[in-house]
Design goal:
The structure is a single chain. It is built from 24 helices and no strands. It has 574 residues and is mainly alpha-helical. The chain is globular and about 80 Å long. This is Kinesin light chain. Keywords: TPR repeat.
Length: 574
């Protein structure tokens, strides 16, 4: 039963300025976009619904996990002729009414699996929805365990299918419905419920819904403590997932505690390879805590085991090289950092059999971030383009591609290619909207970055809409006092000033200033900047509301000169 696996977390714009409205003044003091990190890839599995259930010819107890794999298995091991036979059987059962509800549901599951094996995920969705209706009717009519199991399997398979389409909100809703059916059948403390809870927790992590993931993972850990021996493999897997959640939420000490306990459990069970993977995760936490010597020690421990057990050219070795490259960059050892990047790239250039394109793309993306940091944007863009090309034809990678496009947008913005930056952000945002991630903080930050690109292209109205949408999302997800939200407030105030909405701009700046003084103190440079901006607005408002518009280009140039003097400053923190 699968659990948590080791994780690794010249402008071409064609618009003619002469056809644009007269430029209006904008002062965006926090222009540097946030480096957008690729989300961690989480996988997992779900368990069957009932203990000791009589085997049904149509719906065996292993139906849940089996359906998760059936599409791939059929694609590899069966011809289209055999697949066609299954479709005919399913249609005949549905049309002639020869099958009971559970049998019909099972037949529809197989039809959906065939569609998935052919990459036709959209067509699988209505088939699974039909199967769930059949199973639900049978269950409500007293059909018993077979119908409940069919409904559970249908919801889980539907969740997997939505996941392959990057519809994360629908995927999680389907998994949640399956979990509720399982709890009704087994109670809320059965070990199989724990496996489904963990599966749903991992899906929430993938969607960056960490609070929900934490609740589910805690429940999983409690159930496994009740039913498993101390320091069991199940508990170790739960703690690794909990560590990932804690790390994502910035609770590094708790993450470290869970990883140490997981490592002890793996050692007790003789899982040396998994111990090495946990050592690498411990190194990640030490790096986040700026405990660099301890991070190097943990990385080297994991690297030694990976080399001895998997070979020098295994992708896990490359992933540790990338981490070491990042560490040495952060400690100012750029020669060592570049050397480790080159070692990792050599492995990714000649992948060994069994290496997935997702592993290679993830590694290339992480290396590109290092090249970007050392001011080699062209090399970073090449790596990102390679990563995106690898994922283009892989199902279920829409969100990953969106993350890559967003990072490309950041680089285009930094080198002054604002047209390409806007296009990259726009494409990424469209993908995230389609996948249901329009309410995440990640999405809000990306809207802000696209707004900044629009400012540089004199698309003021579009920038205002983007900043306003970003404000609403970040207020909901992060709160009004979070640095990301305050940064959007500041940009929105500048846009309102440029649009002549001076009173709105003053109101926002007064709110920002109040929060910054409370959080940072009156002597902080950011507080001083906001005071100067507010004082200028108040002075001009007292003089005349209809002040003459200044050139946007001149104002951007003056900002550039100021940034050269003061040094480039990142407003948003990664």
């Amino acid at each position: 039963m699968p659990g948590l696996v080791s994780h690794t977390h010249t402008d071409t714009d064609t618009d003619n300025p002469e056809t644009q409205p007269i430029p209006v003044p904008i002062d965006l003091p926090h222009e540097t976009p946030l480096p957008i990190k690729e989300k961690a890839a989480i996988v997992g599995g779900y368990g069957r619904i009932g203990p000791g259930q009589p085997r049904s010819r149509a719906v065996p107890p292993e139906a849940g996990p089996r359906h998760h794999r059936v599409g791939r298995q059929r694609g590899e091991g069966a011809g289209l002729r055999d697949q066609g036979v299954e479709v005919v059987r399913a249609k005949r059962a549905e049309g002639e009414g020869e099958a009971e509800g559970a049998e019909l549901a099972m037949s529809l599951h197989v039809v959906a699996a065939i569609y998935c094996s052919l990459g036709r995920f959209e067509e699988a969705v209505p088939v699974l929805e039909r199967a769930i209706k059949v199973a639900d009717v049978g269950s409500s009519g007293g059909g018993g365990a077979d119908h409940a199991l069919a409904a559970f399997s249908g919801y889980m398979q539907l969740g997997d299918t939505h996941s392959m389409l990057a519809h994360h909100d629908r995927s999680i809703a389907s998994y949640d419905a399956g979990l509720n059916i399982q709890i009704q059948a087994l109670g809320d403390s059965d070990p199989r419920v724990a496996e489904t809870c963990r599966y749903l927790a991992e899906a929430n992590v993938q969607a960056m819904q960490f609070d929900e993931a934490e609740v589910l993972c805690k429940k999983t850990l409690e159930i496994h403590r009740e039913h498993s021996a101390p320091a069991s493999l199940e508990e170790a897997a739960d703690r690794r997932l909990m560590a990932l959640i804690c790390e994502a939420k910035g609770d590094y000490e708790s993450a470290l505690e869970h990883l140490v306990l997981a490592s002890m459990a793996m050692i007790a069970n003789g899982q040396d390879g998994e111990v090495a993977a946990i050592d690498v995760s411990i190194g990640d936490v030490y790096l986040s805590l700026c405990r660099f010597d301890e991070a190097v020690f943990s990385y080297q421990k994991g690297l030694t085991v990976f080399k001895s057990t998997r070979g020098d050219n295994h992708p896990s070795v490359a992933s540790v090289y990338v981490r070491l490259a990042d560490l040495y960059y952060k400690t100012g050892k750029f020669r060592e950092s570049k050397s480790y990047c080159e070692n990792a790239l050599r492995i990714y250039a000649k992948p060994i059999p069994g290496t997935t394109v997702e592993e290679i793309a993830s590694g290339l993306t992480e290396i590109s971030a290092i090249y970007e940091a050392v001011n080699e944007p062209e090399e970073a863009l090449k790596l990102l383009q390679k990563a995106m090309k690898l994922l283009e034809d892989v199902p279920g990678q829409r969100s990953a591609i969106a993350g890559i496009e967003a990072q490309m947008g950041v680089i285009f913005y930094m080198v002054g290619k604002y047209g390409e930056a806007r296009s990259s952000f726009e494409s990424a945002i469209e993908k995230l909207r389609a996948s249901g991630e329009r309410k995440s903080a990640f999405f809000g930050v990306m809207l802000n970055q696209m707004g900044l690109a629009c400012v540089q292209l004199y698309k003021i109205d579009e920038a205002a809409e983007l900043f306003e949408e970003a404000r609403g999302i970040l207020e909901q997800e992060c709160g009004p006092c979070h640095p990301d939200t305050l940064g959007v407030y500041s940009n929105l105030a500048a846009i309102y000033d440029a649009m002549g909405r001076v009173e709105d701009a003053i109101e926002i700046l007064e709110s920002i200033l109040k929060v910054r003084e409370e959080k940072l103190g009156t002597a902080n440079p950011d507080v001083d900047d906001e005071k100067k901006r507010l004082a200028e607005l108040l002075k001009e408002t007292g003089r005349s509301r209809n002040r003459k518009a200044k050139s946007l280009l001149n104002l951007i140039d003056s900002n550039s000169q100021r940034m050269k003097k003061e040094g480039t400053r990142r407003w948003f923190k990664s």
